[in-house]
Amino acid sequence: MNTLLTTLDKMQEVLSSLASLLNEEQHQLSAGQINSNLLQRITEDKSALLSTLNYLDEMRRAAETHLQIQAPYDGQSDMSHRWQHIQQYTRRLQDSNVHNGLLLQHQIRFTQDALEVLKPHQTQAFYGPDGRGKGQSTLSRKI
Predict the structure, then answer these.
(1) For site-directed labelling of 68, which of 15, 75, 77, 130 has its Cα 20 to 30 A away?
(2) How many CA atoms lie within 13 A of 141 on its CB side?
(3) Each residue of 35-92: pLDDT tens digit?
(4) 132 in Cβ contact with 138 (< 8 Å)
């Protein structure tokens, strides 16, 4: 029983960390100028937290099987309360993640629009899609 309670507590801690990270991500995506290095770190941290959460959920399911109980833990007030809190956190995090996805799509559209404005003003292409210089002869090597 203690293992399950500990696992549920750890899940709440990870969800709390994930909420802070999503708030930080939202702040970055809402900023006038995005710090791409910081956004990359946030993405990596999010991925690590989600992996941890997945592992904890597997531990929770194993403990449930061992104890022959199942969420929402009717009749177990401590576990039931923790489970309700986890579900509430999860719903809020889902909403935050959807919101951040919309902000990211907005940033992508903004960048694409900026590139479209700049394209006609491009004077000369120095490199082709293959990475070789345009208009330059290619040197051949003898083997």
Answers:
(1) 15
(2) 1
(3) 889 999 999 999 999 999 999 999 999 999 999 999 999 888 899 999 999 999 999 9
(4) yes
Closest CA to 14 of 67, 63, 66, 55: 55
Q: Which neighbouring-strand residues pair with 127?
A: 133
Residue with tokens 């500990």, as numbered in its chain: 6
Phi, psi of 134, rounded to the nearest 5 degrees: -85, 140
Query: How long is the chain?
Result: 143
8 Å CB contact between 34 and 108 = no
> Which token pair is 28?
């970055």
**How many angstroms separate the first and last alpha carbons of the chain?**
72
